[in-house]
Amino acid sequence: MTELLHEPKPTPLALLLLGQGADPDSERGVECPGALPPASDPDLVDRAARARAALGDRAFILGHHYQRNEVIQFADVTGDSFKLAQQAAANPQAEFIVFCGVHFMAESADILTASHQQVVLPDLAAGCSMADMADIAQVESCWASLEQAGIADVTVPITYMNSTAAIKAFTGRHGGAICTSSNARQSLQWALEQGQKVLFLPDQHLGRNTAVRDLGLGLADCVVYDPRRPLGGLTEAELQRATMILWKGHCSVHGRFSPGNVDDVRRRVPGVQVIVHPECQYEVVEKADVVGSTERIIATIAQAPAGSSWAVGTELNLVRRLAQDHPDQTIVYLDDTVCFCSTMNRIDLPHLVWALESLAAGNVVNRIQVDADTAHWARIALDRMLSLPGPAAKAD
Ligand code: SF4
Of the residues 113, 158, 230, 273, which has the maximum number of CB atoms within 10 A of its CB? Predict the structure, then answer.
């Protein structure tokens, strides 16, 4: 019988849900400019349905896997960030792309869609803590450090999809490529054929896990570049020796899982298999049975026989949905405290209703637009990824 053996305990992060509180370090702190309906309005579902119907084919609603159910029920398609951006581009009849995800995902959709399509993010405060750990000025300064150490011309940047458009464009300008959690191995392999070193942005864990576990590099081949310290907190000699220069960034959701969580769940659930996302720490991934992108986690559990037991190390909304969808399996959450993506969860039903009603009334709100030059170079980095052999690109 499916069960989320126990609900995780709340943490201060939980206070950010439904906009209750703010996290100035990881969010944009943007106020909703409109008359946001109260969350207590009993008519919210009907209002969303009416606005959705009024918009018809003019709107296409994208729902990321980590989004809450009250929003997912209105999604025309669900998926990871890159699949959703591609779906937006594949539906050119839709003039409005309503992206129930986070800011960088809406930027990617704007880069890939046609100029007549307008991408809307229902809450501009829905950022990504990982993407926000690397801003373009810091990355330019890092590149200057690599030039100072005499290694910039042998270094290829590889940037995870979970990054700002400006950093994707930087990657394109400097001969690099984008990667997703599904094709990071192919992207890294390609980069090491082009140069001697890789600057991996912005998730140190995905970079380290891929380099060490998939490509056979040693942990000693990796250094972590801290953008808040001169020369990244490294010496020129350390930069020159390293093969992988990992940006000091991480996902605030996946980075929370610890090796102790794996030990605990194995004690708690006999025969459990642990499946985690590669944004988890290296020590966690090493203890897991299966490691894979969000789409791989979903597919692995969907194909597992009845009676299987899984402890899942990814975002809690998705884990709950997996437990509901597979009542013949035991599906538990890897951590014992709340681990929502608090920024993704900023997009709730009131914000969706507000965005849809505004669009239906002819008022385009919260449009996400990437300037033409940034979009051009970001597209080059994305196209380099798409030209690589290997698994279809899937992200986050
Ligand atoms: S789960 Fe992590 S990487 Fe994904 S959007 Fe949330 S903070 Fe960013």
Answer: 158
Ligand 1 center–CA 341 separation, angstroms: 6
Q: Which of 108, 344, 345, 346 to mutate to test the pocket of ligand 1 (most atoms within 8 A of CB)?
A: 344
Q: How far is the CA of 130 from the centre of ligand 1 (A)?
A: 6
Using DSSP's 3-state secondary structure scheme, residue 23 falls into coil
pLDDT band of residue 340 (cuts 50, 70, 90) is confident
pLDDT band (50, 70, 90) for residue 9: low
Give the separation between CA 333 and CA 330, rounded to whole angstroms: 10
Atom of ligand 1 minimally distant from the CA of 26: 7
Give the global pTM: 0.91
Could you tell me if 331 and 5 are in contact, meaning their C-beta atoms sit under 8 angstroms apart?
Answer: no
Buried b (16+ CB within 10 A) or exposed e, 95-115: bbbbbbbbbbbbbbbbbbbee
Which token pair is 209? 């896990």
CB distance 102 to ligand 1 below 6 Å: yes
Q: What's the gap in Å between 125 CA and the centre of ligand 1?
A: 13
138 close to 113: Cβ distance less than 8 angstroms: no
Give the pLDDT mean for 212-220.
97
* Alpha helices (runs of H) in the chain, residue ranges in sequence order: 44-55, 69-72, 81-89, 103-112, 136-148, 165-173, 184-194, 204-209, 236-241, 259-268, 282-287, 294-303, 316-325, 349-360, 372-386
The Cα–Cα gap between 378 and 367 comes to 19
Taking only the tens place, the pLDDT of each residue in 294-308 is 999 999 999 999 999
> Which band of pLDDT confidence, cut at 50, 70 and 90, is reported for residue 396?
low
317-334 confidence digits (pLDDT tens)? 999 999 999 999 999 999
pLDDT recorded at residue 393: 52
Q: What are the structural domains, with CATH classification, of the chain?
A: 1-24+254-339 (3.40.50.10800), 31-127+344-370 (3.40.50.10800), 131-252 (3.40.50.10800)
**Which one-letter DSSP state was computed for residue 214?**
I
Q: What percent of the chain has pLDDT over 70?
A: 89
Contact between 37 and 47 (Cβ < 8 Å): yes
The dihedrals phi and psi of 231, each to the nearest 5 degrees, come to: 55, 25
Q: Is the separation of the CB atoms in 205 and 257 below 8 Å? A: no
Mean pLDDT across the chain: 91
